[in-house]
Amino acid sequence: EVQKLNQQLEEKNGEIQQMINQPPYEKEREILRLQKTLAEKEKAQATSDVLCRSLTDETHQLQRKLASTAEMCQHLAKCLEEKQRKEKGNSDDHIPTERSNQLLDNETSLQALICNLQDENRMLKQKVAHV
């Protein structure tokens, strides 16, 4: 490994000697090329930073939306339980009414929405990690 590192050091020294021996206009051209490369990398980094902030903001918005949706689901589940208890108490033959069916449909659609939001949140987290 030391020999490998010494060889790499010799190669770098050779490159430095080549640079020193180059005519001034070639040095200037190399400097300009390196400056251009640096500017491109800085621009790419700035774009990446903007995208990360945007994804972070969107993730926070989705998390808040998911939390409010979960809260709504819990509230609807409680309402459904209370309604079912009341109906069960009123009659032994519990026949679901249109309102309870509506609550079940709402709960199902909210659960589907929660699943979708969780999937989207997971994908956004993966994008953030990738960026």
Write a compact overview of the structure shown.
The protein is 92% helix and 0% strand. It has 131 residues and is mostly helical.
Outline the secondary-structure elements:
Elements: H1 2-21, H2 24-90, H3 98-130
Helix pairs in contact: 2-3
How many alpha or pi helices? 3
Low confidence ranges: none
The helicity comes to: over 70%
Q: What structural category arises from helix and sheet content?
A: mainly alpha
Beta-strand residue fraction: under 5%
What is the radius of gyration? Answer: 32 Å
* Terminus-to-terminus distance: 34 Å
Count the beta strands: 0
Biased composition (Basic and acidic residues): 1-14, 82-97
Protein name: TNIP2 protein
Keywords: Coiled coil
Region (Disordered): 1-25, 82-102
